Hints:
Structural class: alpha/beta
Strand order of the largest sheet: 3-2-1-4-5-6-7-8
Strand content: 5-15%
Radius of gyration: 19 Å
CATH superfamily of the largest domain: NAD(P)-binding Rossmann-like Domain
Number of helices: 11
CATH architecture of the largest domain: 3-Layer(aba) Sandwich
Number of strands: 8
Distance between the termini: 46 Å
CATH topology of the largest domain: Rossmann fold
Low-confidence stretches: none
Helix content: 40-55%
Order of helices and strands: EHEHHEEHEHEEHEHHHHH
Amino acid sequence: xxxxxxxxxxxxxxxxxxxxxxxxxxxxxxxxxxxxxxxxxxxxxxxxxxxxxxxxxxxxxxxxxxxxxxxxxxxxxxxxxxxxxxxxxxxxxxxxxxxxxxxxxxxxxxxxxxxxxxxxxxxxxxxxxxxxxxxxxxxxxxxxxxxxxxxxxxxxxxxxxxxxxxxxxxxxxxxxxxxxxxxxxxxxxxxxxxxxxxxxxxxxxxxxxxxxxxxxxxxxxxxxxxxxxxxxxxxxxxxxxxxxxxxxxxxxxxxxxxxxxxxxxxxxxxxxxxxxxxxxxxx
Length: 283
C-alpha cells in the first residue's frame, strides 16, 4: 500500500513532532485534538522547531513554508477524512483511552488504511483487537521526534507482512531508522530504559546521592547525554509511572515495581519539565 495522506491523533509533544516529520517530507497531515488551544500550541511548537532547523542549516525557508502548508489542524475525530491512508495515534499512555479511540476510528476510516500507535509500552496485539489486527502496528518514535532517528516498529500477533513492509519503507523515507521488534511489554527501548530510571529514583529515595550527582555519574561515567533523572523529567514522570505499571502488570515480576517516590511525585503533580518541576525546577 502506498501511503499518501496521514492523520496524527493527539497534538502534544509526540503528536506535534510526528506531524512535523511527515509534513516536512511532503505528506498532507491532519493533526487532530479535542482542544483548539492545544492545536494552536502544537502549531507554534512546530514553527519554532522548523526555525531551529533553519538556523542549523537543515532546511531552508521554502521547505518550512511548504511543511506548514501541508499541516491541517482539526478538532475531533469526525473531521478526519475517511480516505486517510495512515492514522498515527499519539495520546496519553492509557490502554482504555487508546482502545476506545481505535474502536471509534475503525468505523470512520476506510478498511484498508493502516492504524499505528505511538505507544511506549502497551501491547499492540491488545490494541489491535479493537480495530483491524492485520493493518495494525506500533510506530514508537523517540523524543524529540524531529531529531531522534530511531522508530521501533512493533508487530502485533496478527500484523500482516504487507503492513510491516509498508511502515518500514515509510520510516526510511522519513529519514528514520526502523527497528522491527516483537510485541512484548515495553518493547526493547522502555523495557531497558524505564527500569534504569526507576532504579535511579530508588537511589535518590534511599539517599545514595543527590539528583545532580546521580545524573553526573551517568553523564561522565557512562557517556549518556543526560542523566536518568533529567531524562525522567523530560519524558514526564506520569508517563514513566504508566510505563512501569505496564511492565509490572505485563511480566508479573516484582523487579518492575514502580518506586514509591515516583508514585508520590506523580500524586503531587510534580511531573517534570512540562509542569515546571520534577526532580529539578524549570523556568
